[in-house]
Amino acid sequence: MTAEQNDLTIRPISGREELDLFSRQPYVLNEELADDLDHARRPVRRCGGR
């Protein structure tokens, strides 16, 4: 049996423009994320900042 290792980076979503990319992974709250981002109910972290 051969194991394959892929590089994977885990980081917070950086804004609404990444929502489609983020939603490709199954997550129970995916349906709520767009509305939460629009109404600032979820914080957005910018890369390189806090």
Could you give a quick summary of the protein structure above?
About 25% of the residues lie in helices and about 0% in strands.
Q: What do you see in this structure?
A:
The protein has 50 residues and is mainly alpha-helical. The protein has 2 helices and no strands. The chain is elongated. The termini are far apart.
Properties at a glance:
50 residues; mainly alpha; 0% strand; elongated; 2 helices
Number of strands: 0
Q: For the CA atoms, what is the radius of gyration?
A: 14 Å
User: How would you sum up the major sheet?
Assistant: none
Helix content bin: 25-40%
Described by its quaternary structure, the protein is single chain
Shape: elongated
Briefly note the structural class of the backbone: mainly alpha
- Average per-residue pLDDT, rounded, comes to 78
Number of helices: 2
The end-to-end distance, rounded to whole angstroms, is 43 Å
